[in-house]
Design brief:
The complex is a heterodimer. By secondary structure, chain A is mostly beta strands. Helix content of chain A is 0%, strand content 55%. Chain A is built from no helices and eleven strands. In chain A, the strands form two sheets. In chain A, strands 2, 4, 5, 9, 10 and 11 form a six-stranded mixed sheet that branches. In chain A, strands 1-3-8-7-6 form a five-stranded antiparallel sheet, with no helix packed on it. In chain A, strand 6 and strand 7 form a beta hairpin. Chain A is globular, with a radius of gyration of 14 Å. The model of chain A has no long low-confidence stretch (mean pLDDT 91). Chain B is mainly β. Chain B is 0% helix and 49% strand. Chain B is globular. Classes of the chains: A mainly beta, B mainly beta. Chains A and B meet through strand 5, strand 9 and strand 10 of A and strand 5 and strand 10 of B.
Amino acid sequence: RKEVEQDPGPFNVPEGATVAFNCTYSNSASQSFFWYRQDCRKEPKLLMSVYSSGNEDGRFTAQLNRASQYISLLIRDSKLSDSATYLCVVSHMNRDDKIIFGKGTRLHILP
Amino acid sequence: DTGVSQDPRHKITKRGQNVTFRCDPISEHNRLYWYRQTLGQGPEFLTYFQNEAQLEKSRLLSDRFSAERPKGSFSTLEIQRTEQGDSAMYLCASSSQVTGNEQYFGPGTRLTVT
């Protein structure tokens, strides 16, 4: 099993719809979780951290399920500008401070 | 501009040449990371510094790759005897151990080996 797995997509979603995608991780010792957004040929930009209690930032909601070892990202009322690749990041900042990026999920918002 | 900066933004080199990239992190960040990213893939971790100490190196980092952060501020990544397979985007990120390790990325250096 890969350390961090994401559905590569693409997810083609009409503007205004709600879309959700998951990211599974294999190491139960993982401690920190993040979602990044990456536009074509640009650097990844931090979208949000994922806390145990879940967190919401405007139209974006992130949740963590430790029992099933996955994190999720929900985007409500999607905008054309949400089109991007969404990268899941998992880290276990113990002795080896390992940080793993998923390969990303491509999202296309359709007008 | 107080973000992470990288130089150069693009580099074209011939196979067998050496190249060096520079990263300037956010000034108050003590952790600095190097990643490599190829098309359709997520960033792959290469190495990581906490202050001036290099704490981890990925198995991806062959002996042709070396990274330094001599004063705990900027970092350099050198690739010796470049190969075509080294063509990729090299990303640098920094974070603060104090504020939770959220990483902020620079714009990257795109390397093309011909």
